[in-house]
Amino acid sequence: LWMANSGVYRDLLSYCVDILASYDPEKAGVDSHSEHYISTTLPKDFAESSVTLVTEVFAGCVQYNRLIQVVIDSFYVKEGRNFKQHDVYVLRVLTYLAIFRLEELGMAHFRRFINSQSANKMHKFLNFLFDEKTVKMSLYDKWCKVYDQTFVHTQLVSPLLRWHPEVQELVKQLSDKLANVQKPRTIQPPTETKPFQLTRPRPRPVAMPEIIPKLKPTKPIPNSTYQRPQTMQLIAKARETNKAKAKALIEESTRVQFVCANPEDSERKKQTLQKIRNAEDAKLDFNRTKAQSVPPSVTENVPIKLNTAAILREGSLFRKKEEDQLRKLDELVSGGKDASEFLRWQEQNKQQELLAQMAEIERKHLEGQLSREDAIIAKRSLAEQNRVRVQEMKEEADQLMQLYLQRRLEEEQGMRKLVEEILSGHQNAREAKEKVKEIKQKIVKEVAKESQELLRRALEEAEAEMKRKVELIQQIKAMESVPVVRSKFFDMTATSGQGLLCEMSVSELRERLALLKVAEEEEEEQRRQEIVAAKQVKDQLVMDTLDEIAKHRAEQTRIAAARQEQLKREAQQRTEATVNDPHLRRLQHRLEQRRFERQRLTAESRTPPKTAAAKRQADSAKRTGEQRRWKELEACRERTARLLATGKSQEQSVQSSRIRWFSSPTAS
């Protein structure tokens, strides 16, 4: 009874919300609170099914309170600004119905519960709850912290995803309602009259076919039509002969020509002609870009222009060096010890270490080449092993091909049996489709009636909202039409009147600013004169520093040249010591032996080319094997196609017999 009236859904939802909001777990239990509420609040004539629904919804919301709280908290984080606090209990009840009771209620009753509330709120809530990304990621992780993962996957996530398509249709209806989209009217087609099938007409006799007259045999086309005339062949043959004779005469005349009649040009003439052509081509180059010439390379020392900071920094560096040298001389004069012997001993040790390092580097280089030769020999042996392994794999592939063909024959026999079973099950599938079609037609009729009612209500609400907006716009325009006076008089000699000692008018402020500007100009001129004097002193200091730098650079150039000559002599000595090392000579001898062995293996691995008869025999064997394999595959395909054709013909015969039965008088 409570399903008959659409207004009952709103009352049922309000009762469920009221019993859930009035529950206090510290004062009473679930059963006692539900009995007290039913006896005191619900009307006496309330249906038993409605009482059962209210009780079960209340018990379910209390049982799955933590699960529902996760959904409500996540929803309020995202859309909480558009919902009030007292809407929490409504969302709790709808969450419980959507997750646990949607299978029992069905989509039609759940749609009526949703339509009994605000369309805007329900649109946002359903979009959040049945969003695939939200359910799989955000809600799934939070539910797994409260319940077992298997329970969450089978009892919570799977039902929501299964009902996702139907709920999306409901969300689309709500969005159309919010956007005031009118559903297009469907015009029913007119009824078509059909004649009565009282008697069946007799079959018409088959007319005798007309005799097709035979045409007289035509004469065959002569072969001369497709052949060139004999004259053209003779002309082409004569042309080829004359061409060969002319070519032979030209070669003979070229071979025995006179020296005075040599047609070739001299080298001088060719050069003169080339110069003339280049000059003429240069005149025709109009859009040529003129490139700048390459500056001459400078090999001598070029003076580098330095700034003031660089000059002073370098002068300070040279002065520090001079002070160090003077300090060392003073120490030697006063009886200090000279460190030249220690430095010489240190330099000799460095030279010996350098020679040892160079010998070690050469040894590592020769050892690396030896390891490379060993790797090449190992690679040759590995290639031979791989060749033997490939031959074994080819033989194994042939055996697997035979097994595959046998298995293919067994699969074809199983496919034949499967086709026969499928043909027998087609009849039951068609009857089930007819029943499903009738159920869907009934659901479509119910939805059409509900949508018409929703459309009428939406039009009335839109008209009321439009009237309210028009009145509000008229009030705003009336307020904007009132003029406002914004002009104000300003006196330049008056103060602000705040009662402070530092108050002054605008004219007095301008006079004081002019006096400050004059004082700043005088101070700026005085500072400019001081800067010019300091700059002159600094320029003189820079010139003196440049003279010192030039002297020191000349001395450093002389020392660097002597040092370079000494380094060349030391490098030559190190090279001679490395060549005379006996260990390196032994490594070089081993390397030459390895190279000779590698060249010998390379020469042996080169197989002689196959003869023409052997190649032809290998090619014919390969073609024979490929033809045999292709024939086996084609036979397998033909058997599969034959089986499918047999199954289709049996299905068509069953359909034709069914059509004949429906069209017979006994079926009607």
Structural notes for this entry:
- The structure is a single chain.
- This protein has 668 residues and is an all-alpha fold.
- The chain contains 18 helices and no strands.
- Helix 9 (132-146) runs antiparallel to helix 10 and helix 14 (308-333) crosses helix 16 (506-579).
Give Rg in angstroms.
Answer: 55 Å
Determine the structural class based on helices, strands and strand pairing: mainly alpha
Largest sheet composition: none
Number of strands: 0
Oligomer: single chain
Low-confidence stretches: 648-668
Instruction: Compute the separation of the termini in Å.
Output: 40 Å
Fraction in helix: over 70%
Molecular shape? extended
Mean pLDDT: 78
SSE succession: HHHHHHHHHHHHHHHHHH
Task: Please tally the helical runs, counting DSSP H or I stretches of 4 or more residues.
Answer: 18
- Strand portion: under 5%
List key phrases describing it.
668 residues, extended, mainly alpha, 75% helix
Question: Can you describe this structure in just a few lines?
Answer:
The protein is mostly helical and 668 residues long. It is built from 18 helices and no strands. The C terminus is likely disordered.
Write the layout of secondary structure elements.
Layout: H1 7-21, H2 30-40, H3 48-63, H4 65-79, H5 88-100, H6 102-105, H7 107-115, H8 119-129, H9 132-146, H10 149-162, H11 164-178, H12 230-255, H13 267-283, H14 308-333, H15 340-480, H16 506-579, H17 582-605, H18 612-663
